[in-house]
Write a structure and sequence with these properties.
256 residues; 9 helices; mainly alpha
Length: 256
């Protein structure tokens, strides 16, 4: 099968989901290196996927305390079009801020205010998804019904970005959504099947409470779905699309 930008974007999504669900120690980094190699073969069209692969490798290296490797990959990512200055203000990245090599690669990035708005939204949505998943886990403790609650997702932005680096963070968000939803569905099916088995062998099973739990869960699911839909990204009217340097390093507060 011949690689295309779309097929490699799908492959990158799969690799990131595997990293998020199983962890780097179990998955390794071969998948990211494979995406980089295959995207490089596509020429300029695959540049942003090369940037995505190096950006992810840089993040993993940073998390492992490998500053030199992190800067090496982040430098390659920026050279290929990475410009998510918001991502470079996460807690794991802050120790690199005083490194002249990091400051140099950061200062090379360019962005438009319109794209910066979306970067903030994408990262904010990742944080909201994590909190929603944690809250759903708490809410589902002790439920006696056999329904399965999904984890609603806000729709991904569909605007035409001014810089292709935005596409990288869209995949990051999509991968986060997929990983969290897969974990939620797995836990829900385990709870549901467990309740089904217990209700068949336990003569004292509280069916009235199970029905109440189902009604309450349906109501919560509806409200979560409405909230997710309401969070859809809306571009600011007249947002500037002029390419300019990123905000000064250290001036961005990561969404929380």
């Amino acid at each position: 099968m011949v690689d295309t930008v779309n097929s490699l974007a799908t492959r990158l999504h799969e690799v990131l989901v595997a990293l998020l669900t199983s962890g780097p120690a179990a998955v390794g980094t071969a998948g990211l290196h494979d995406v980089i190699a295959r995207a490089t073969a596509l020429g300029p069209d695959g540049g942003w996927l090369v940037a995505a692969g190096h950006g992810s490798l840089g993040e993993l290296a940073c998390l492992n305390g490998q500053a030199d490797q992190a800067i090496l990959h982040l430098d390659a990512a920026v050279a290929a079009g990475f410009n998510d200055c918001v991502a470079l203000h996460t807690a794991p990245m802050r120790p690199l801020h005083h490194d002249p090599r990091f400051r140099s690669l950061y200062e090379r990035m360019r962005i438009t205010p319109a794209d910066l708005d979306e970067f903030f939204w994408l990262h904010q949505e990742m944080q909201i998804m994590v909190r929603d998943a944690q809250q759903a886990t708490v809410d589902n403790i002790g439920r006696l019904d056999t329904g399965v609650s999904l984890l609603p997702q806000a729709p991904l932005p569909t605007r035409e970005p001014n810089t292709l680096g935005v596409l990288i963070t869209r995949i990051d968000l999509a991968a986060t959504q997929s990983a969290l939803q897969q974990a939620a569905v797995k836990a829900e099916f385990q709870r549901s099947s467990g309740n089904t088995s217990l209700s068949l062998i336990d003569d004292s099973w509280d069916y009235d409470r199970a029905r109440r739990d189902a009604w309450y869960a349906d109501d919560v699911d509806t409200r979560r779905q409405q909230a997710a839909e309401a969070r859809a990204f809306v571009e600011r009217p007249g947002a500037d699309t002029t390419l300019m340097p990123c905000p000064p390093l250290g001036s961005i507060t990561y969404p929380g």
